[in-house]
Amino acid sequence: MKQPARLPPIPASVPQEGEVAQPTMQDPFTQQPSQEEVSSVDAITDEIFLYIYKDGYDEIVAELKKGDDLPKTVGNMSGNLVSNEVMMLEEEGGEFPQDMFIEAATETVEQFTDIVETEKIKEFRNDTEVQVFMTEALTYAINSGVESEYAGIDDDYIMSTMENLLRGDMDMNASPISGTRVIEEVI
Amino acid sequence: MAHIKSSPTAGHTGRLKSNNTMFPDSRALALMGATGAAQTRKAGTSSGNVLKDAWDGVLNWFGGGLGKSGTPTKKGGGFTGWISNALSSGEGMMGLGSLLSVAGTFIGTLFDDSAEKQHELESRKLDIYEKLGMEDIRINEMKAKDAIRQTGIASTFMGWTNPIAAVEGIVEPTPGLVVGDAPSEVASNTGGFIGGSNQGMITQAKQRQV
User: A23, B15: Cβ pair inside 8 Å?
Assistant: First the structure.
């Protein structure tokens, strides 16, 4: 059999299910959270997501629909939910790593953004619009955490976190998640 | 303010995954905004509007160094307009990496309200603007080179580059559009890449992406 003159081009790898195509943006953050920290975030956000998609869904959608400032509504709800959940955990004797507050708030904002899209409360024209929306919402969420009764997050903490980010000590890319929604598993 | 109390039910398993994932840059920008708000609150100058405070904080750090992205627009002024530019690499917008990098150089003064530190911060801003200005120059250089190439593309006639377009970046008039480093070597390759006499053939090895 005649040999081909050259090998056929190897196709680029296709992301498999569960894998995340990472954005090619600059990532100045180096540290990865420990497995314990990731588990702590999961424990908090599991409870929040269960509430969001089960008992609280109708109330949340109604709140989102009447909100004049959607990023603010999403951010404040996210910040409040995370703060409340962490405080409840601590009241029960549990511990939550302070540094994971932003991660938990981020994941919550992402879920709310899914709901905003699913319920057609706001239509995003492109990915940048989604990112801008979530950035604004997370700003509100962090601020909401600062203003809440949760003692772990205050102005000084936020400023020192920013310092860490500028020094490159902080990981803002902790446990990136994306993919198919698996509501059935949770409810 | 919206406030919903969580009432979780225990006993479930599995992880809920979102269709929307925040980029690291988005998180960093949100943290910058929240820090700006925290700083104005600590300084007692908070307006009560989180995004306005966030923007005031960012302006306080970078000031004129933000370039065009520091100018509020009708569509989305202040903080919103800025993050929109930052995330879409809008014209005149410094990359977030550059901003974080230069902000890191005056980190020691960023959150210190003492007059001495603030004076130091103002002094260092000059260095920062210089760095950002150099970045601007690099961007303008790239735009200029691209304009030269566009001239070459628009100036071909019957497959030959117009001699008028023989500017830097378009080495010499040759058949077809030949740009960059390849032309001088390829044009002298009378053998062509399949042994013919077509002088305009560009070998794949030397071809430059335009």
Answer: no
Instruction: Say how far apart CA B135 and CA B69 lie, in whole Å.
Output: 14
C-alpha–C-alpha distance, residues B47 and B53, integer Å: 6
Q: Which residue has the tokens 């398993």?
A: B13
Please name the residue that has the structure tokens 């919103």: B80
Q: Which of B9, B25, B27 to mutate to test the interface with A (most CBs of A within 10 A)?
A: B27
- Where residue A29 falls (left for φ over 0; alpha for ψ -120 to 50; beta otherwise) is beta
Measured between beta carbons, which residues in chain A are less than 8 angstroms from residue B41? Answer: 155
Can you state the percent helix, strand and coil of chain A, rounding each to 5? 60, 0, 40
Domain boundaries, chain B: 24-150, 156-210
Phi, psi of B100, rounded to the nearest 5 degrees: -65, -35
Q: Name every residue whose Cβ is closer than 8 Å to that of residue A69 and which is 6 or more positions away in sequence.
A: none
The length of chain A is 187
| Chain B hits for A55, Cβ within 8 Å | 7, 9
Nearest to A27 by CA among B21, B65, B101, B106: B101
What residues of B are in contact with residue A159 (Cβ under 8 Å)?
Answer: 35, 38-39, 42, 111
**Per-residue confidence of chain B (210 residues) as pLDDT tens digits?**
333 433 334 344 455 678 889 988 889 889 989 998 998 888 888 888 898 888 888 877 776 556 555 555 544 458 888 788 777 765 545 566 666 666 666 666 666 666 666 666 666 666 666 666 666 677 777 777 777 777 766 766 666 666 655 555 555 555 555 555 544 444 444 444 444 444 444 444 444 444
B91-102: string of b/e by CB count within 10 Å (b at 16+)?
Answer: eebbebebbbbb
A-chain residue closest to B22, CA distance:
A131
**B19: which 2 tokens?**
């269709």
Distance separating alpha carbons of residues A106 and B135, to the nearest angstrom: 31
Enter the ipTM: 0.75
Residues A35 and A97 sit within 8 Å (Cβ to Cβ): no
Q: What DSSP string describes A80-96?
A: HHHHHHHHHHHHTT---
Query: Identity (one letter) of the amino acid at B135?
Result: E
Instruction: Quickly tell me which residue has 């925040």 as its tokens.
Output: B22
